Structures are given as C-alpha cells and as structure tokens.
Amino acid sequence: MSYDAWIILTGCLVGITCGMTGALLILRKMAMLADAISHTVLLGIVLAFFVTQSLNGLPMLIGAAIVGVLTAVMVQALDSSGVQSDAAIGVVFTSLFALGVVLISFVGDSVHLDVNHALMGEIAFIPWDTLMINGVSYGPTAVWMLGGVFLLNLLLILVFYKEIKISTFDSAMAISIGVPVVFIHYMLMTMVSFSTVASFDSVGAILVVAMLIVPGATAYLLTDGFGMMIILSAAIGALSSLLGYGMSIVFDVSISGSMAVSTGILFAAAFMLSPKHGMVAKWIRRKKMQQEQEQKASA
C-alpha cells in the first residue's frame, strides 16, 4: 500500500474503533468519563514502560486497561461517598493525568515518548513504524494494534449485545434479571482504555476524545435504534477521518487536527439537518403547527 493509503486506513480504524465504543458511552451518559480515561491512560503507558522498558503494544494495552479501570473505580468510589459525579471525574482525571505527565519526564530522550507525542500524536509518521517479523515488513504497527482492538471491541459488543443494551436503558431491570451490570460497566471502561491507547500514535490523547464523543453524538441525532446508532457512529468516525485527511492535504494543516474538525462539521450538519432532531426539521414542524392553529382559529 502507498504512504497515503496507510494514513487513511489508520485514521479510519481510529474513527471506527472509537466511534462504536463512543456510541455506547453517549447512551450511558458517560462521555466525560471517557474524556478522563483518554488522559489518565498516559499513566498506564508510562508505568508499563518503566516495568518492561519497552513501548510494545501489549504492555501498553495492559497498563492502559489497568489505569482505565482504576479511573472508573475511583470515580465510582468518590461518587458513592457523596462527591458530585462531575467533581469526582475532575479530581481523578487531573490527579492521575498529572502524575503521568510528571513520570514521563523521567523517561528522557531515550525513547519516542513525550507529553507532546502523547497528547497530539502524529499520524504522518505511522507508515514508518512497521511490524517486522524475520526481516519482513507487515505494515504499520499502529494498523495491527488498532485492527486488533477493533476486532476485540466488536467481538465483545456482539457477545454481550443484549446485556449491554438492557443495562444501558434500564439498569434496574438488568439487575433484576441477573445481568452482570458491574461487569458490563468495567468491560466498557476497558474497551475505552484499549481504544485510547491504540489511537495514541495517530491522533493523541486530546484528539481521541473527539473520536470517542462526537461521532456518537452525531449518530444520536440521526437514529433512535441502538444497533443502528453503533453502526452509524463507526461510519461517521471513518468518514471524519477521510474528510479530515482531504482537508489537511488541501489546506496543508495538521492531519489529526483536521480529522477532529471534521467530526465537528458532521455534527453541525446533523444538528441542523437531522430529519427528526435537526433544527431545520423542528422549525418546519413549528411553522406547520402555527399554520394549523391559525386555520382553526379562522374557521
């Protein structure tokens, strides 16, 4: 594949992986917790490097998953103890993320890991970091990592589809019929952690928030179906990556930044033009109601 094709494939995988996970977070009203986890996993990556002295994918994923679940546990513990949920997220988010930033300064210049890389990423370098086996290149490492996380997330959603759906819309009923609500919750947190750390090299911790939240919010405006919202969110994430890459080429700007801007453009379009929830459709319905009321009054 060409250099541009690898970048586009990587961006689409980020959009799809984060998009379908983010749709579940939007429905469960956990978007800000996803924001927190997307930053605190930096601590897991740094700790994994200290333990293994390697930036290989598996240790990073394990470290990120542990810290991601720890973030959710700490937020839940503070929330249960009486701290407001938004304040609990803020306390845990800033504390763990700041600790990660402090620890990353001890890594030094020996490896390609710094605060700017972790926050912003650089998708343009992805094609050069390839997976080598017996001297043979099998493509960018990020593509393999993102593909693996995508397949894992897809498998979990398919296997636990019914349990996720029930616990999302009616947790009390889910508990009464024996659905492991707590397990589903922390499984989703693990999926968010995996999706975030797999996307680090391409879009970074800050911009991955856009991929986790905005495609899901856009899909929420376009459909009322649970399964269709997951599919639409993944498709919107991929489309945002394609549009963003095109914008970056035309205007010669940041690729990952353009992808994030594209998510906002698509959301704005859905916000205005959605057949049911869009501002234009609501205005048309109001005008029709006013006309009907005027006709009745004149009659």
From TrEMBL:
CDD domains with a match to the protein in the record: TM_ABC_iron-siderophores_like
Entries under InterPro entries matching the protein: ABC_BtuC-like (IPR037294), ABC_TroCD (IPR001626)
Highest taxon in the source lineage: Bacteria
Biological processes, Gene Ontology terms: response to zinc ion; transmembrane transport
One annotated Gene Ontology cellular component of this protein: ATP-binding cassette (ABC) transporter complex
Keywords (A to Z) from UniProt: Cell membrane, Membrane, Transmembrane, Transmembrane helix, Transport
Membrane-related topology note: Multi-pass membrane protein
Signal peptide: none
Xref: Pfam families: ABC-3
Localization annotation: Cell membrane
Transmembrane segments: 6-26, 33-51, 57-75, 87-107, 142-161, 173-197, 203-222, 229-247, 253-273
Family from the record: Belongs to the ABC-3 integral membrane protein family.
UniProt protein name: Iron ABC transporter
Organism listed in the record: Pontibacillus yanchengensis Y32
